[in-house]
Structures are given as C-alpha cells and as structure tokens.
Amino acid sequence: MNKIGFNVLAWSAVVSDELKPIIERLKAIGYDGVEFFVGSPDEKAYREIGSFASQAGLETTTVFVLGPDENPIDPSAAVRAKALDKIKWTIDRSNDLGAKVICGPFHSAFSTFAQRSPTEEEYDRSAEVLHQAGDHAAQSGITLTPEALNRFECYLCNTMDQLIHLVKKVDHPHVKAMFDTHHANIEEKKLGDALRKVAPYLGHVHISENDRGTPGSGHVPWDDTFATLAAIKFGGWLTIEGFTRNDPDFANSIGVWREFSQPWEMAENGYRFIREMGAKHGL
C-alpha cells in the first residue's frame, strides 16, 4: 500500500507548536506522513516541527505557492530571480522539516493572469527557473513536483498535457509532476487517461474531492482513479488536501467561503476511504 499523508492546511497555513497535537492524532489514525504549507517566516519552527513529526513516526512533505512579485514566468529577470530565491528558501525549509517531496503550483504565480493563452516563452522561463531550483533541491535529496491547477487559479498549467510539456522542458531528475484529483476533475476529460499520460513523470498525488471536502463524499471518479494508479504502479504519496475555514486568511486567499467538511471528519473518514480503495484495486 502506498504511503498516506494529510495536509494540515485543513487547520493552519502556519508551521508552529499548535500543530503538535494534530500531528500526534494523525499518527494515531494511521497516517504515514503529514504535509505542511511553507510560508511562515519563523525558520526555527520548521526544524522543531520536523523533529517533532519524526519523533512521532511521521514522514513529511510540503506545499507552497508564489506571488506575483516572485513569478517564474515574468518578463523581468529581477522578478524571476526573486522566484528562484523563494523556491530555494522553500527547499531549505522543507529540508528542515525532513521532507523529500515539495508540491504546488510554483511553475508560475498563483492566481496571476495575463488575459491570454500561455506562450512558449513563458514555458521556457518557468523551465529555466525550475531547472536551477532542481539543482538546489538535489543537494538535499528533494524532488520538486509542480502542480497543474484549474483555470480559475492559473493559466500556465491547467492540464497534464501542459504540465508534461513543462516538465519535459525542465529536463531535471529532481523535477517531476504532480496530480491533484480536484483540479483534474475540472480540467481533464477522464482522470484515468490523464494519469496514464503523466505516469512516466508522476511524483506526487493529492487525493482531493471535487468540493475539497472528505474524499469519497463527492463525485470524483474514484474507482477509475485508484484502478489507474494501481495499473501504472504509482508508488508515491497519496496525500489528502482538503480545505476549511479554520485559517481564515488562507481560506480567503483561495476563495473558500463555506465549510465543506470538518478537519477531523475529513482526516478520519478520508484515511479509511483511501485504505478501502487501495485494497479494492490492489494499490
């Protein structure tokens, strides 16, 4: 069975001591790992929480986003340099946490649009930044897994076709692709077909319901998803990423205006659902 993780964004975007009882309870449920959002500036906290998670018997992964002033596809070389610096900083904080996988839409700035289709020059700019970031990640044995988002949150990579195009341009062993079932449910025709297409490049998977609530409670085609993950022999993380309004600042930044599921209901029932689907499909 693949390792199962849970993203603590359901509670907070800040890495702090307040996450310690959450980490302990996730371990008690049965999780193999915990995923943290890297953004808060307290560098010491990353080392302390990473050590705490390790002592609790949990591995770690991380996720982050970039803003418009640190956009890898910006025409300004100075802005792209800021993007690289932010990615390197995130790699270092992820290393402090003990993470070996970093995911997120860091191929471009979150929710920053050009009012047109992406250009090849933008893919080239992103690839150049990500290749350099891959060199930095390799020093810590970390793999970067950029994520395709739905059309309402970015325009550079909405589909696996676009993400594969980018990852092939990056051409770095420490830069792979990520698959999120929430975004794919919006942008892909068939999730199974999309997974088979990205399989040679796939490094991380988010198990996310269509409304970001508890996996298994909505209409994502889970049988097709898990059957395909088994067929392509995906051996990486299956990490639940569900959103709530527990951290209002983060929720407001991503347009979460109502509750989908309570965090612990999501964690407990989501873990059970992944185990059941994994057993059903031989994953």
TrEMBL record:
InterPro entries registered for this protein in UniProt: IolE/XylAMocC-like, Xyl_isomerase-like_sf, Xyl_isomerase-like_TIM-brl
Transmembrane segments: none
Any Pfam family matching the protein: AP_endonuc_2
Domain Xylose isomerase-like TIM barrel: 24-252
Domain of life: Bacteria
Protein name: D-psicose/D-tagatose/L-ribulose 3-epimerase
Species whose genome carries this gene: Cyclobacterium xiamenense
